[in-house]
Design brief:
Low-confidence stretches: none
Shape: globular
CATH class of the largest domain: Alpha Beta
Distance between the termini: 28 Å
Number of strands: 14
Largest sheet: 7 strands, parallel
Structural class: alpha/beta
Strand order of the largest sheet: 3-2-1-4-5-6-11
Order of helices and strands: EHEEHEHHEHEEHEEEHEEHEEHH
Strand content: 15-25%
CATH topology of the largest domain: Rossmann fold
CATH architecture of the largest domain: 3-Layer(aba) Sandwich
CATH superfamily of the largest domain: NAD(P)-binding Rossmann-like Domain
Oligomer: single chain
Helix content: 25-40%
Radius of gyration: 19 Å
Mean pLDDT: 96
Number of helices: 10
């Protein structure tokens, strides 16, 4: 099987590429390298620099590489930026990828897995959150992901393109070998920020919000190890190959950890008692986001094996300690 991986040089995409190779599946990567890194990929992996909005390019890739399916990671993901520039996010995350879907329709590729997000739910009224929960995203980022999910439903009706959209909760951790991890020019994720603080690259670690209605007052999130997350994509790929209908699934552990709990684990793993600075809440941050992942476990047999929070932090620390400046090649 040949799979086009859009955004395949990014954090999640590069891990996915490595897992595809281990399964004997040939990945072909399309990435703008705005956020991705060539160093995250084996030089033997075909890498095309370009955008999913380039319909002719996508069609050429599909034809030249006999693509059987697409895994679509490419997209903008900074919540605060999306609030400041919502049109940028709608153009990049919704309008642009329609060109990719058109290229798929024209070339007969009928299977796609989409990297979605728990941000489609907004502030939950039920926890853990089931897939049928109301969709009221509080950020243009979340809205853009939900809009593309709906676009995929239309392309199923229009062209028979079947899709599985996976709503991630908090992807975290690094490869057990320590060769792939998070390296964002603008880092917003809790664990990498904490690891950078432990390395002395930041003077303190800010904790946003200490007055939530949670056991310790800080926000609670569901952290899923990158290996388990990528495994869910393999299972979705198998399901689509076996004729599975278009559907959407949560990907999370069903267990939440508070910000302070995670930071204590980072301090214990790193052995660094770095300073915590309590700060006001950020607008739009729900108190608790925890997945109900019953359906993907029951229907696909997905079983997270690496997502104990200590293991997540240990793998992240191994990556950051070994790559304090991130990937050697910044592009």
């Amino acid at each position: 099987m040949n799979v086009l991986v859009t955004g395949g040089a990014g954090y999640i995409g590069s891990h996915m590429v490595g897992m595809l190779v281990s399964r004997g599946i040939k990945p072909i990567v399309l990435d703008t390298l705005e956020f991705g890194h060539t160093s995250s990929l084996d030089p033997a992996i075909p890498l095309i620099i370009g955008n999913v909005s380039d319909r002719e390019l996508v069609r050429t890739i599909i034809t030249d590489h006999a693509i059987d399916a697409v895994i679509h990671f490419a997209g903008f993901l900074l919540v605060e930026e999306s609030v400041k520039d919502p049109i940028k996010y709608m153009k990049n995350n919704v309008v642009g990828p329609i060109a990719m879907l058109e290229a798929m329709r024209e070339t007969g590729v009928k299977k796609i897995i989409f990297s979605s997000t728990a941000a489609v739910y907004g502030t939950p009224v039920v926890t853990p959150i089931p897939e049928h929960h109301q969709k009221e995203p509080v950020s243009p980022y979340g809205l853009s992901k939900w809009c593309f999910e709906e676009m995929l439903n239309q392309y199923d009706k229009l062209a028979g393109i079947r899709s599985v959209s996976l709503r991630y909760f908090n992807a975290a951790g690094a490869s057990p070998a320590g060769n792939r991890g998070e390296d964002h020019a603008i880092e917003t994720h809790l664990i990498p920020l904490a690891c950078q603080t432990a390395l002395g690259k930041r003077t303190d670690m800010k904790v946003y919000g200490t007055d939530y209605k949670t056991p310790d007052g800080t926000a609670v999130r569901d952290y899923i190890h990158i290996e388990d997350l990528c495994q869910s994509h393999l299972l979705a790929l198998d399901a689509l190959a076996n004729g599975h209908k278009t559907d959407t699934y949560n990907v999370g552990t069903g267990k939440g950890q508070s910000v302070l709990e995670v930071l204590r684990v980072v301090q214990k793993v790193t052995g660094v008692d770095f300073q915590l600075t309590m700060s006001p809440r950020r607008s739009g941050d729900p108190a608790e986001l925890v997945a109900d992942s019953t359906r993907i476990k029951t229907e696909f047999g997905w079983n997270p094996k690496y997502s104990d929070i200590t293991n997540i932090v240990q793998t992240a620390w191994k990556w950051h300690k070994g790559h304090p400046e991130g990937y050697e090649n910044r592009h």
